[in-house]
Amino acid sequence: MPRKELQLLWRDIRFMLTGDADVAEADWRDDARLYPLDWGYQLDRPADYFSPCDETGLPMRELPAGLGTVYLPSRIAGFACGNWNRFCTTGETRYREGFMLAANWFARQERGAFYQSFDLIGIKAPWLTCINQGEGVSVLVRAARETGEAHYGEQALRAAGWLDLPMAEGGLKDHLPSGKPFLEEYPGTIYRHVLNGCLYALVGLWDLVDAGLDEDGRYARLLNGVADGIEAELAAWQVGDWTTYSYRGYEMDAATPANPNTMTYQALQSILMSFLGAKLNRPVLADAGRRWRRAQYSFFRRTGALAGKIRYRLSHGYHV
User: Fold this and answer.
1) Which residues on adjacent β-strands are paired with residue 243?
2) How many angstroms separate the CA atoms of 183 and 181, rounded?
3) pLDDT tens-place string over residues 53-97
4) Cα-Cα-Cα-Cα dihedral sign, residues 303, 307, 312, 313
5) Is the pLDDT of residue 253 over 60?
6) Rounded (5°) CA angle 58-60-64
7) Is residue 260 predicted with pLDDT exceeding 90?
8) Which residue has the higher pLDDT, 115 or 21?
9) Spatial CA neighbour of 162 closest among 125, 135, 193
10) Residue 13's pLDDT band (boundaries 50, 70, 90)?
11) Strand, coil or helix: what is 173?
């Protein structure tokens, strides 16, 4: 096993044993301006999370095997939201400047499309993912509210359009077996109906609707349609009270080991599910978030999930 994969495996084992996670929750219940995930601690460790940077200070990503350095939308969004939450809680201008630096990057992207610029698991670059689009919408909505400038909101609507466009037409909207819509993180691959990516996108749609930018109700309908589907098929992303990375609703999954989430993904999904359950007034989602969080504090459930994760890694490798 390569050294990097060994390091990641050791981190996952350590987090499962200790209950730690590489994600934190913002105090969104008391301050509605905040993004629900608090990436502020990453600002304190820029060498680990936001390096290298371009000449303006915007974080980039160095690809392996000498493939170059690229802009990674999800990393830029994390930088934006970390700075935004710090600005909201401290009022310091430097954090507003960091946020606007990232927001302006999203505002410049043609057609509101935040592409991945590298090949991955059979997808050829450039390709779209619901994580990038959802996080980009969240950043742009906050920029629109902060500055009062309409072009940020207009770009947020363009970015959201890709979420409501069917995959067959180059968008990110797929459907669950129930027929309800779902937003895809890895469109067209075996990693279908990945929950964490879809939750990021739903947060972006909520931000858009809450800001009053959804004048014809298009994105409210999409948001609630996807939430309906997740509620109806919630068991497909769970083993007991532990979440799975993969949707387990297809026959081909019957002989495949479950793919329990790492501690960080379990924590991330519990935070986003709790947020959406509260904002959308959906008790089923809110209860799932609470159950998943309780499971994080159970050593028995963590070690059971760890054993399942190791089984999955041995049969599938270390992609997720």
Assistant:
1) 238
2) 7
3) 999 999 999 887 777 899 999 999 999 999 999 999 999 999 999
4) positive
5) no
6) 170
7) yes
8) 115
9) 135
10) confident
11) strand
Q: What is the pLDDT of residues 116-169, one digit of tens each?
A: 999 888 899 999 999 999 999 999 999 999 999 999 999 999 999 999 999 999
Do 187 and 174 contact (CB within 8 A), yes or no?
Answer: yes
What mean pLDDT is reported for the chain? 92
Let me know: does 186 contact 176? Beta carbons within 8 Å: no
pTM: 0.94
Provide the pLDDT confidence category of residue 10 given band limits of 50, 70 and 90.
confident
Are residues 125 and 118 in contact, defined by beta-carbon separation less than 8 angstroms?
A: yes
Q: In the chain, what are the domain boundaries?
A: 1-19+233-320, 28-231
Cβ neighbours of residue 281 closer than 8 Å, sequence gap 6 or more: none
Compute the distance between CA of residue 36 and CA of residue 78 in angstroms, rounded to an integer: 12
**Helix (H), strand (E) at residue 202:** helix 195-210
Quote the distance between the C-alpha of residue 251 and its chain's center.
27
Mean of the pLDDT values across residues 260-278?
Answer: 96
DSSP 37: B
Tokens describing residue 123: 């997808």
CB 76 within 8 A of CB 69: no
Picking from 142, 40, 138, the residue whose alpha carbon sits closest to that of residue 89 is: 40
Is residue 229 within 8 Å of 163, Cβ to Cβ? no
CA dihedral 255, 258, 259, 264 (to 10 degrees): 180
User: How does 184-201 read in b/e, with b if 16+ C-beta sit within 10 Å?
Assistant: bbbbeeebbbbbbbbbbb
Handedness of CA 224, 229, 235, 237 (dihedral sign): negative
- 247-273 burial, b at 16+ Cβ within 10 Å, e below that, comes to bbeeeeeeeebbbbbbbbbbbbbbbbb
The length of the chain, given as a count of residues: 320
